[in-house]
Structure formats: structure tokens, C-alpha cells
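User: Can you recover a sequence for this backbone? Please restate the input before giving your answer.

Assistant: Of course. Working from this structure:
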């Protein structure tokens, strides 16, 4: 009976460890996938962008003119929240409505701007995503192909 108890305890410990590992991997995969979708969508919109509103854009928000399905739009991405995890939200209607895109940010300043000749023509986006056990960093530099030069 005692041997059976030891074997059963060992099997339970292995099973619990397997479940914990699987849950950790699944959480990391889901958080990373959400971040990649957001980064891909933002990058696509920025590449089509004509101008960054420098007065309205900060390290935690970006406002720019771009095209969605061939229609000119003012697009706003912003980070909200008072403490981590922060949320990244998007508005495609000049800020009238915001939709959450990612809700696991550990840093509230994902945007860095590079200017040439007084015009912002490159944006670096760094998303620091918190999982249940670690932080995943994904980043990209985006050149505005249609940046308006004076």
C-alpha cells in the first residue's frame, strides 16, 4: 500500500509539473501572438502614413494620418493604465472610439521618433509584453514611405 502511495504521488507530481509547464508555454505563446498582431497592424498603418502629428504624439501615444482601405484617416495608438499591465489601444476615427489591442504591456512608453529635416519619418515601436513568468520584448523600426516633406 505504501509503495502504491509513493508511485501515485510521483505520478501526480509529474502530471502537475506538465500542466504547469503547458500553461506557461500557452500563456507566453498567446501574449507573443497578440503583440505580433498589434505590431504588424501598427507597422502597416505607419508605412502608409503621410505625417505624424508631432504636437499630439508622445512616448506613450502616436497620432498620424494614414490610409485604411484607400480612405484617408487619422489614426491614434495610445497606452493606457496607471500601472502594469498597461493596455495598447487604437482609434481609427480621430479618437472618438478606442479599441483595446494588447493588454499585457509592462512599459508605457513604446514609441520613439526620428526626424530628418524637421519631419518625423521613422518610428521605433518597442512592445514589452508581460507573461505569467517572464517579459517578452518585440520591436521594429518603421519608415513612413509617404512622409510629407516640406
Amino acid at each position: 500500500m505504501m509503495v502504491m502511495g509513493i508511485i501515485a504521488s510521483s505520478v501526480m507530481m509529474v502530471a502537475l509539473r506538465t500542466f504547469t509547464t503547458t500553461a506557461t508555454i500557452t500563456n507566453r505563446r498567446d501574449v507573443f501572438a497578440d503583440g505580433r498582431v498589434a505590431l504588424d497592424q501598427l507597422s502597416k498603418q505607419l508605412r502608409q502614413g503621410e505625417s505624424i502629428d508631432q504636437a499630439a504624439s508622445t512616448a506613450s501615444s502616436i497620432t498620424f494620418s494614414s490610409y485604411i482601405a484607400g480612405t484617408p484617416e487619422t489614426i491614434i495608438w495610445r497606452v493606457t493604465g496607471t500601472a502594469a499591465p498597461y493596455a495598447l489601444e487604437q482609434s481609427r476615427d480621430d479618437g472618438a472610439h478606442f479599441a483595446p489591442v494588447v493588454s499585457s504591456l509592462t512599459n508605457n512608453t513604446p514609441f520613439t521618433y526620428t526626424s530628418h529635416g524637421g519631419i518625423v519619418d521613422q518610428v521605433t515601436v518597442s512592445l514589452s509584453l508581460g507573461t505569467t513568468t517572464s517579459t517578452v520584448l518585440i520591436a521594429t523600426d518603421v519608415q513612413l514611405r509617404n512622409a510629407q516633406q516640406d
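That completes the design. The chain has one domain: 2-143.
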